[in-house]
Amino acid sequence: MSHRTFSAVALATTGVLALTALSVPAATAAGTGVTGALQPATVEAPSIGVPTTRLDVWPTATDLALGQNVIFDASYDSGNFDPGIIVWKSSDESVLTVDQEGHVSAVGVGEATITVTDKDDSSLTSTSTVQVREVPEDVGMELSVPEVSAIFNRQVYLHALLAPSLQGSAVTWSMDPSTLGQFYSRDDASSIDFQGAEQAGTGTLTATVTSEAGVTKTVTVPVTVQPDPRGDFITDDDGVLVQYQGKSQDVEIPEGVTGISSGAFPSQLTKVWVPASVRTIDYEAFKGTNLQEITFQDDSAHPSQLTAIYDEAFSNTPIETLTLPRSVQTVVGAFKGMAGLKTLHLGPNIGPGLLVGDFQYTPRLTTIDVDPDNANYTSDEGVLYTKDHSSLIAYPTAKNPGGSYAVLEGTTTIEQSAFENAQVATVTMPSTLRTIGSQAFAHSHLTSLTLPDGFESAGYWAFAYAEKLTSVDIGGATSLPDGAFIYARSLASVNLRPDLGRLTMLDGSALMGTALTSLTLPDSVTSIGQWSLASNTSLTQLHLGAGLSSIGSGALSGDTALATVTVNPANASFSEVDGVLYTKDGASLILYPASRAGNEYEVPAGTTAIGYQAFDRARSLTRVILPEGLTTIDYSAFQGCTNLVDMTFPESLEVVRGIQNTGLDTVILGSKVRELFMPTRENLAPRHLIVRGGVNGKYYTDGEPSNGRIESAFFGEGMTKVDVRSKGPKVIVLPSTITSFQLDPFSSPGYKTDAQVYVAAAEGSPAWEVAKAELVKEGIDLSHLHVYTPAQLTLKGLDATNDEAGGALAWKDASVSVTATVNGGVPEGRELRVTQVGADGTETLVQDWTAMNAGDGDASTLAFSWTPTEGAPSLRVQTRDVTHVSAEQTTEVQLTPARVTGEWSRTLFGWRYVYPNGTYVKSQTIMIDGKIYRFGSDGFMRTGWIYDEGAWRYHDSSGAMQTGWVKDQNSWYFLDDQGAMRSGWIKDNGNWYFLKDSGAMAKNWQKVSGKWYWLSEDGAMRTGWRNLNNIWYYMEDSGAMVADTTRNINGVDYRFDASGAWLP
Length: 1064
Prior knowledge:
The protein is mostly beta strands.
């Protein structure tokens, strides 16, 4: 006889009855890696050796049509198995083939046998005989049997044999009358299992199949269902009762039955007599029935043979009193969930190491009695102990409600779940107590707790949800375990015994969700785990001791009343700066107390990271100033700062994960972003997001925000991946560097996003194709895809742009009428704002953001008036569109009583532009005679490469700014209409060019985004066939070289190696 080892959990899915005694150790504490979810109770399951006596194959016999494929099943009588431990074989592979997953194919006419065998025990084997025949097209379909004869509650395998043209089509099955039985579908479309109903009778079964051409074939055969000859009690070959089919509520199980299987009885059962022959009662054997009384045959003439009872055998039954036969040796979780149980009598032979945690969810239990002859257990006033009193195993839940109990002196361990849900209010602990098991007092009515000085440790959730517990003295505990007092909501006082100096750790969620108002961690504590002090909404003061060196994620999350955090100055890892918690070196901000006084906070220079949930729910904050040098904002850092409306992000930021769910309307990040993580589902989200640029930057968002859909998201150059896993922003601008784009992958076609997508690259460019491919994949109309160019602002009406002499002059105290025109950017939502800037820097708003009017084409215009004065000679004009990306122009005028012009003046050191009053242009960019010149702070005209206004620009030797193609030191550069040097792909006069990061035009072979391109000597990207050094290459229409593939070109297949060379 073979044996296979299954865990107790596996047994719970197979219904196997174990015959050997089991030992279930108390559960150990779960790991400390808690990440937000509370850990349920778990018990380490024992391994159980289950004898295997039979291997079966299904179907046992059948007919197949030539060409058909079906799936056979195999099973052990001991339950499920790994397919890798059996071997499938066909006796004639010219008729049938079978793979090692039981897929059978009919490949020839004739008869063959399918055999399945255990790899390790060849005596475990089973066979199925299969006849393969052809089904003519005019017949179309036949059934594997000419008639169906079924017995109640037993299955019959039925297969539809299909002609070749119908194979693969789904077969539908029907029964008349339908009450004769039930169909169970199988993995292949042409087979079913039929199970006869309880009511015997005759009728017909019909199978129907329809081809793709609409041809329907139908076969009808007679059906006979007979009653089960085994009667009301169905047993397996080992005598185990697997199902009671009778209607009686008072049942006497026949003698000779050896076991009772899982779910053997229907719910109407109220009374049962169990014969002495029964040896095992399987898990959930009587669960959910109305069983009120169970009687075991156990007398001198017929001593009970019952030795084992398994998990929840009597769960959810109203039994009030249960007396087990003296023969019982093994009990594993048998009493869990017995909601009506009041009194339990345990016999003398129950083995050691059992019963721990077996009394969960027994709310009416008052007494556990133990036979005096039992060598392993005893009862003290109805409380279950080990025989030597060293362990308290279970205190009955309903014993002495609101009263008190003194644990026996000498007891060293209170086991797992011993007092779980117990209604006793006061428990006196003995001086000998050293350990308390997991969930020992979970959900108990305990009101206070004092542990002895010699106490050592407790298991996870030891006092979880003890909602009446108000005060705790932890005695000599060296740690508070995971969830030790989680949601002990009335707990207002905890003595961590600093006098003993033994406590070193608060594990995950140890004091989460209590009523503590202040807490001082002793200097002996070195670590507090994830969520250890979280959700303490009454906690206002916290002091961290000298020894603390580790604070877990979310340890102080949700402490919304916390106003003061102090740290022992001797602490080497953490410090407090103005009530805010930092690492000792000041590099990381750990916690800004949620109720700290003030509505503005400036993070000090030198801080490089803001930690996980650092500003969690600091709702008083309206403004936060972040320092340059800050690189990281971690997950949920500003979560719940709903009144935070003002925060400027430094250029240095690289990783941003926690700025959602604030009051910010617009978020503007710099150009070094590597990661931007902004899940917005059911969170507040900024209406506008601007990422100036990135370094292989990646963006992720999902879900619709609670404050409605985001208006816009702009991604600058260097951002490569944008993952919008929802409808996302209404307007999205992508850079030319984009390589991966995902938009709204989960909405059905009729609910797809209406977002407008802009790409800062020409049609047909790699970035354009990335965006286009995503819209096509998601079925979004390509009218939503547009080319993006930066917004350009021009002003007319100022002498600086109108005067033919080029003078930047204006009449003193005279009103100037200015017209602003904007092209580029996004046409929707264009606005203009005008600010007057005084000589001392003072700013005065001339006109706030005002909607612009439609102009020619996609242009927008707006006119306004301005009166410059000597005290305020400068004007700053800003424009923005729906993205809130702004462009601006600042004009400074020289005020004079007369209209004059300047002239060029050459000195030994260079050219200046001098006004008649002797002053000259300094630190300005001005237009003279229609050309743009830049002047340094010394007033000299600048030439060559100049970095200004965020881009490199080139002024030739005349000083005039250049546009278009410029050659400098044997390299060509391209400058746009604003004179800004371009990089990356550009299209000019119908040709594509690639400009390196330096701006220099690339030639010859160039690798871009993992693909090779050929650029001729004039820099133009080439496509089609190219013969280079006597090797032929082929470039796609995109310019990318074809490599390591076979490509059909003009109807001919060509093969290319990994280097791209054509292989003739």
